[in-house]
DNA sequence: TTACATATTTGTAATTATTACAAAATAACA
DNA sequence: TGTTATTTTGTAATAATTACAAATATGTAA
């Protein structure tokens, strides 16, 4: 997959991409780094930053800016929206079919990418009565 | 307007809200602070941060997270999307009518707010041939 | 007006995510 | 093996935002 996007597949790059591909919770750099560091003790956080930026420049992942504090990363580049629960803080994918924005398509802008970010309360937190 | 939202209108609060209301370019804290500081030399940047956070908590403004580096603020709380030009970096409002997300409304999540962020090339930058 | 309580603002310091960059390590290849 | 290019590392720099205590301003009752 990396090769197809014109990225030379080094050990670390493969590890980072695999991690993101297998962990669909949109992790932060910190989470990715800490988890991988367990297996690859020579890994540097800068490498994680560099590699993820490289990936996103080649369009193989997407950077999510939904969280105020830090960036999050998503290996699923198919069309879907993102939801952040105000209670449990989890990020959840929302599938989207037949989306339609009147106005957005017809304003003369060339739109190369877009993101839809939602906030509210997720299913689990609605059902649990713990405040 | 501030009173209606349950915010005590102090001098600075009025100044900050007026500024945002009259400058619809979604300025950063830094821009707001520097412009207002010219007239109010006693103003502190922390006050700008505090005040804007207060405003957004009371729903009288919206915080935009479209820019990677810093937050931006919008006194227009009506439904519209935002576009950032990759060339000139400007933020542009996109009006939206009859938007429809199939899937988004029917997934059981309670969505209290959402944002649509687009990126690409704006009209002006398409027409100017300067790279 | 004065005294007091409350709310607001200030300014500095701390926190934290991200980037810059040069050195070190690794890989590619003749 | 020797040389070059690429990747990775680790530290330092940058910069946005927040924490917090002190200072200031405001409102109110006596």
Keywords:
homodimer, 131 residues, alpha+beta, Arc Repressor Mutant, subunit A, Dna Ligase, domain 1, 2 domains, two-stranded antiparallel sheet, 6 strands, globular, DNA-binding
Protein architecture, described:
2 copies of one chain form a homodimer. Chain A is an alpha+beta fold. Chain A has 2 domains: 3-74, Arc Repressor Mutant, subunit A; 80-127, Dna Ligase, domain 1. Chain A has 4 helices and 6 strands. The first copy, chain A, has helices at 11-22, 29-39, 45-57, 123-127, and strands at residues 62-64, 72-74, 80-85, 91-95, 97-102, 110-121. Chain A has a 3-stranded mixed sheet. Chain A has a two-stranded antiparallel sheet with strand order 1-2. The model of chain A has no long low-confidence stretch (mean pLDDT 92). Chain A binds chain B through residues 65-66, 68, 71, 81, 83, 86, 92, 94-104, 107-123, 126, and chain B through 63, 65-66, 68, 71, 81, 83, 86, 92, 94-104, 107-123, 126. Strand 6 of chain A pairs antiparallel with strand 6 (110-121) of chain B. Chain A binds a DNA duplex (30 and 30 nucleotides) through residues 8, 10, 12-13, 28-30, 42-47, 49-51, 68-71.
């Amino acid at each position: 997959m990396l090769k197809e996007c014109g990225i030379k597949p080094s050990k670390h790059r493969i590890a980072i991409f695999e991690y993101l591909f297998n962990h669909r919770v949109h992790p932060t750099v910190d989470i990715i780094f800490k988890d991988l560091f367990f297996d690859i003790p020579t890994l540097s956080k800068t490498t994680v930053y560099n590699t993820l930026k490289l990936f996103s420049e080649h369009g193989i992942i997407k950077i999510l800016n939904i969280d105020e504090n830090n960036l999050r990363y998503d290996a699923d580049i198919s069309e879907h929206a993102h939801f952040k629960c105000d209670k449990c803080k989890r990020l959840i994918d929302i599938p989207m079919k037949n989306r339609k924005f009147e106005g957005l398509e017809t304003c003369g802008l060339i739109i190369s990418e877009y993101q839809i970010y939602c906030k509210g309360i997720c299913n689990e937190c609605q059902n649990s009565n713990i405040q």
